[in-house]
Design a protein that fits this description.
alpha/beta, six-stranded mixed β-sheet, four-stranded parallel β-sheet, 15 helices, binds ligand F0G
Length: 369
């Protein structure tokens, strides 16, 4: 069974949109949920905060079918797994990869098993894995241990690993860089994104390089990544055995694409920096309340990063200092806030109780800030 290829009027997904740049052939069955083509939202307030005439755009990847950027890579990985005759796709995940794997495997009619660090997954993401029918396995260990296990499992015949160690994942994910260039008419001067397993950084850089080589862009962006301070192996240049951050999506101590992402930061004249959980939550709240965009905590890291780089004395080599006036900056908002409502619903956030009377409501509204 094929995807929505033969359905006129269906929104095309990334494989059809960028087929000539992807490792698919006529023999590849395309399983798509019409992922990609996400909005590039202009942020007037962030632009004003960065200043110097810069324009900041937000690539809102939370609007993909399963609510994160993972869908771009998963359509390719699962389609290729189906092409190879795999009977089981597996992945380790901090939540979003497993949600995407489960959804695309369901679409393709392939069994899916996901390996998750026990008790460390946002509820929305866990619900997605279950509802799409995956076998959900909670491992007593962190993401890095889950990934090690999955790599061992993938040596069995008929099993396809759909983590970003699968090259098809990064191939699909690079389409986000194509979309940015297609929308702006050129590459941005700076691209800012959160870093966990470091696959997305690697994929964007690959996409920018490929389009640049094809003369679709006149320049390459500096890549600026942010790790959570308690889970920052690339920044500190050493494996973090017990990574800790409330931004559960990026709680990773030994990223699979470490070397390739480091090369991307270096070659692009960019940098890898860290951001505290406090700064991440402040940025998440700011983005939701000032710009109307609700993202999960990890996705607020680049916004927190922009704030930090503007507020502190710039560190040596800060890419933001190196971009020209009137520069174009793109931040990737990797996942939707609805995946992790527990991150924002704490004891301080509760509705104001009221009787169903107009006078009572008016008085409450009067007092509310
Ligand atoms: N943002 C979100 C929302 C994520 O889910 C992830 C990674 C990242 C950022 C970091 O991207 O790993 O390419 O550097 N999530 C993976 C997962 C690890 O299992 O869902 P990266």
């Amino acid at each position: 069974m094929k995807g929505s290829l033969e359905a006129p009027g269906a929104t095309i997904g990334v494989i059809e949109r960028y087929r000539e740049h992807l490792p698919v052939t006529e023999a590849t069955p395309v399983f798509t949920l019409s992922e990609g083509s996400t909005p590039l939202v202009h942020s007037p307030r962030l632009s004003a905060i960065v200043g110097r005439g810069c324009r900041v755009y937000l690539k809102y990847e939370g609007l993909n079918p399963t609510g994160s950027f993972k869908d771009r890579g998963m359509t390719v990985a699962v389609s290729k797994a189906a092409e190879s005759g795999a009977h089981l796709v597996i992945c380790a995940s901090t939540g979003n990869t497993s949600a995407a794997a489960a959804a695309y495997a369901a679409r393709a009619g392939i069994k899916c098993a996901v390996f998750l660090p026990c008790g460390k997954i946002a509820m929305g993401k866990l619900a997605q894995a279950f509802v799409h029918g995956a076998v959900v396995i909670a491992i007593e260990g962190n993401f890095d241990q889950c990934l090690k296990l999955v790599r061992e499992m993938a040596t069995e015949p008929g099993i396809s690993i759909v983590n970003s160690v699968n090259p098809y994942r990064l191939e699909g994910q690079k389409t986000a860089a194509f979309e940015v260039i297609d929308a702006l008419g050129d590459a941005p001067h700076l691209h800012v994104l959160p870093v966990g397993n470091a696959g997305n950084t690697t994929a964007y850089w690959r996409g920018y390089l490929e389009y640049h080589r094809l003369n679709r862009a006149t320049r390459l962006p500096r890549m600026l990544g942010f790790e959570a301070a308690g889970a920052a192996p690339i920044y500190y240049d050493r494996v973090v055995e017990y990574p800790e951050t409330a931004a559960s999506a990026i709680r990773i101590g030994n990223p699979a694409s470490w070397k390739m992402a480091t090369a991307a930061f270096r070659e692009s004249g960019g940098a890898i920096e860290i951001i505290t959980d406090e700064e991440i939550f402040a940025a998440q709240s700011w983005l939701a309340s000032k710009e109307g965009l609700f993202v999960e905590p990890a996705s607020a890291a680049p916004i927190a990063g922009l704030f930090k780089c503007r507020s502190q004395t710039p560190c040596a080599g800060c890419p933001i200092q190196k971009i020209p006036d009137d520069a174009v900056i793109v931040c990737t908002l990797t996942g939707h806030g609805l995946k992790d409502t527990a991150a924002v619903l704490n004891e301080r956030v509760k509705p104001l109780a009221a009787l169903p009377e107009k006078a009572a409501i008016l008085s409450i509204l009067d007092k509310a800030k």
